[in-house]
């Protein structure tokens, strides 16, 4: 992880093209650190959203807590299926979507996922999530369309351990130091991952 982190930061420092791009995920020279599809190919089935840089998500329960995702099908033919679990006002809910890996302009890896969630309102059914930084075993930092295209999610397969300092540093660079932390692993494990029935989100 440290080598990957240092080479990522070095790429930021030596790049002469940074002024051309508003966000790190738009920079083709960072492609080696943004291959989000590689994690889906590994089938790391569960990822937890430890925090984000905005308080409300109108399509996922506003300020709902305990957000995690489960990959429920293998990544085949460029696609996989994901189920999100979260808690809204004490009620467990789920949302299912299909995810398709794509490469954005200039990138030579699949650095973004096109999301299609049929049960959401029409304006929110199709969303593109772009990878800022990917280390499948530590963290995935994702740009979302929220807050005028400046939203960020910090996802990890290991929410119970200490947060990786390298991932945290990159998040601060890309997304600001503001963090809306709402994931308590012990409580969320009980609320989200038990066999108790969940309410499916209807559009």
From TrEMBL:
List the signal peptide residues: 1-19
| Keyword Signal tagged | yes
The alphabetical list of record keywords is:
Signal
Q: Which residues cross the membrane?
A: none
Source superkingdom? Eukaryota
The record's GO molecular-function terms, alphabetically, read: amine binding
Entry keyword Signal: yes
What are the recorded Gene Ontology BP terms?
A: symbiont-mediated perturbation of host defenses
Looking up InterPro entries in the UniProt record yields:
Calycin, Tick_his-bd
**What is the protein name for this chain?**
Salivary lipocalin
Q: What is the species listed in this Swiss-Prot or TrEMBL entry?
A: Ornithodoros erraticus (European soft tick)
């Amino acid at each position: 992880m440290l080598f990957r982190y240092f080479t990522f930061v070095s790429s930021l420092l030596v790049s002469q093209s940074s002024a051309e791009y508003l966000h790190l995920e738009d920079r083709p020279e960072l492609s080696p650190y943004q291959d989000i599809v590689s994690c889906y190919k590994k089938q790391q089935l569960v990822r937890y959203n430890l925090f984000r840089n905005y308080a409300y998500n109108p399509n996922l329960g506003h300020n709902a807590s305990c957000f995690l995702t489960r990959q429920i099908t293998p990544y085949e033919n460029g696609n996989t299926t994901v189920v999100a679990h979260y808690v809204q006002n004490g009620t467990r809910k789920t949302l299912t979507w299909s995810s398709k890996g794509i490469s954005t302009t200039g990138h030579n890896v699949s650095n973004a996922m096109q999301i299609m969630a049929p049960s959401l309102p029409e304006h929110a059914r199709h969303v593109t999530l772009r990878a800022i930084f990917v280390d499948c075993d530590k963290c995935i930092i994702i740009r979302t369309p929220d807050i005028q295209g400046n939203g960020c999610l910090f996802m990890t397969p290991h929410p119970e351990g200490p947060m990786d300092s390298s991932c945290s540093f990159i998040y601060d660079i890309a997304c600001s130091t503001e963090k809306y932390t709402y994931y308590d692993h012990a409580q969320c494990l009980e609320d989200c991952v038990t066999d108790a029935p969940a309410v499916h989100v209807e559009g």
